[in-house]
Specification:
The protein is built from twelve helices and no strands. By secondary structure, the protein is mostly helical. The chain folds into two domains: 127 residues, no CATH class; 106 residues, no CATH class. The chain is elongated. It starts with 18 loop residues before the first helix and ends in an 11-residue tail after the last helix. It binds a DNA duplex through helix 3 and helix 6.
Length: 270
DNA sequence: AACTCACTCAACCGCCTGGCT
DNA sequence: GAGCCAGGCGGTTGAGTGAGT
């Protein structure tokens, strides 16, 4: 007989998270934090297990998540660190600010491993110094007995340089108001913490159970409608839709903080 | 248009680890 | 030291999607 599940799965949702669940999780964590993942779903009114909530937060909803394709520098960093650390995805992720272990693992398994194995079949390309994408793996050949120490130094070096790069990238992305793709739900939530830029503080939001029900019912229609009109992976302004529906039909039930939200500043990407 | 196939990536599963009693 | 528990981690899965036929 196998190990018992981490929690009772009876009656719990599985599979893809809905926007309603996301919003509920974000709101709860912004307000109360996540000191106890196991208790969180119940307290937040989510029909999910704690692990699922933790994973969703860490891999997708966390404010500092960096979305979009990996840059060449990031890919090279992954390759170099994987060369030294192996499948220590969380350690590799700690060197790439805004990237998650899951994301890195996926990139490795889907792109980098294949690319490397094809390069191994033609060894010339690995040593080709004229190729800007060359891996320079020989730079990291070190005696086994010193491996961990040197890896630490490597990690330190990479971390500091990537933190700087990430900061710069984020600055330029946020300053471009046309760049919808650079402003995600995560950014929106993150921005709640920046009171100078945005007057709203989501930690002050009190959303009553009745309102959640209203959100869920209204949003089912809104999302289904929007998805019909946004085939092809285009941006859905989900919060705007939500606001529109809420203001139309449930204005007298809305908490004053929610009523005063300016959703124009926020975009959601699906 | 319908079908198949390959690919991607979010989410799940189960083991490991460390802290607490 | 033993047992329990929660969180963390890495491997794996499967739904969704796009390309090709």
């Amino acid at each position: 007989m196998g190990r018992a599940p981490c929690c009772s799965k009876v009656g719990l949702n599985k599979g893809a998270w809905t926007p309603q669940e996301d919003l509920r999780l974000i709101t709860y964590i912004q307000k109360y934090g996540h000191s106890n993942w196991r208790a969180l779903p119940k307290l937040a009114g989510l029909k999910r297990c704690g692990k699922s909530c933790r994973l969703r937060w860490i891999n997708y909803l966390r404010p500092d998540i960096k979305r979009g394709n990996f840059t060449q520098e990031e890919e090279e960093t992954i390759i170099k660190l994987h060369n030294k650390l192996g499948n220590k995805w969380s350690k590799i992720a700690s060197c790439l600010p805004g990237r998650t272990d899951n994301e890195i693992k996926n990139v490795w398994n889907t792109h980098l491993r294949k690319r490397l194995s094809s390069k191994e079949q033609s060894p010339k390309s690995i040593n080709a110094t004229t190729d800007s994408s060359s891996l320079e793996l020989e730079k990291f050949e070190i005696p086994v007995e010193n491996e961990m120490d040197i890896s630490s130094l490597l990690i330190e070096d990479l971390t500091s340089s990537h933190i700087e790069e990430t900061k710069n990238a984020e600055k330029s992305a946020c300053s471009n108001s046309d760049s919808i793709s650079a402003f995600t739900f995560s950014d929106a939530v993150n921005s709640f913490e920046d009171a100078d830029k945005y007057p709203l503080d989501i930690t002050d939001m009190i959303i009553e159970p009745e309102l959640w029900e209203e959100i869920e019912q209204k949003d089912k229609e809104a999302i289904s409608h929007d998805r019909e009109e946004n085939k092809g992976g285009e941006v859905i302004d989900w919060l705007q839709q939500l606001e529109r529906e809420l203001m139309k039909d449930a204005n007298d039930q809305i908490d004053p903080f929610l009523r005063d939200l300016n959703f124009d500043d926020f975009k959601i990407i699906f």
